[in-house]
Description:
By secondary structure, this protein is mainly beta. It has helices spanning 2-21, 251-269, and strands at 37-51, 57-67, 73-78, 81-87, 93-100, 104-112, 118-125, 128-136, 142-147, 152-158, 164-171, 174-185, 191-200, 209-219, 225-231, 237-250. The protein is globular.
Amino acid sequence: MKRNIIRRIISVAVILAIMITLLPVTQQVNAASKSKKKKIYMPAKITTTQYFSNGDKYGSYSETISYKKNGMPSKIRGKLSTIKYKYNKKGFVKGAKVTETYDGSYSVRMKANKKGLLTQSRGKNSAGSFVNTFKYRKDGTLASSKSIAGNDTYKYKYDKKGNLTYHDWYQGGTLTGKTSYSLKLDKKGNVVKATEKRTTNGYYGYSTDVNKWVVKNTYDKKGNLIRKVAVDGDGRKYVTTIEYKKVKAKKKYVKYLKYFKRNNITSLTGCLPND
């Protein structure tokens, strides 16, 4: 049972990490120009520990992130999975190789639009072939995503600051689940508390499943998220800590790296489905 739950956690983390990380650099610079490097704090290790509702420790899992000389992420490694990224000459991620302990290795291929935003990812793993497509708003935020293999579609809404406030889930055109987020921000605009409410229909064998998560975040003086505590509706707790390192990155990659840092931490440490 424990192995199955951990495998599902890793599967969720791997899929989200691929989807978010494959977004390319949004600021391109003439290759002939000299690009100076800038130091930026990037996540080096992310550890999540799960506790039962009675406080007993269930288990933990860690991901380490390494970077190329130009500052771009090169690999995410965990005990049960590893993701290696491939780039083209323009600095866009063109693919990734995923290695999972139980499901073996497989490759992911991507396509992007003129702005460099990921529009499609495809590959084949032990579960079969998969194709994911993505659509965006004018401001670059993700409007919807679709898994063709699973016939699943997700639609997203945000507040004025770009924080996710709502998304719904469709299977074959039928509304299957809804998730809303109530956010509390500090003076700097950081999300310090988020209350997540999920309502799903026919998910995990229930006719109707309503679950409420409460997530509290802690930041360091530089504004880096260093601790996340998520508690689900059944009282189970997930405590995540994030360690950082200084990365020397070319200036043309800084904006992307900030996006990567925010979204990868969110995806790798966010609330997980009920077990």
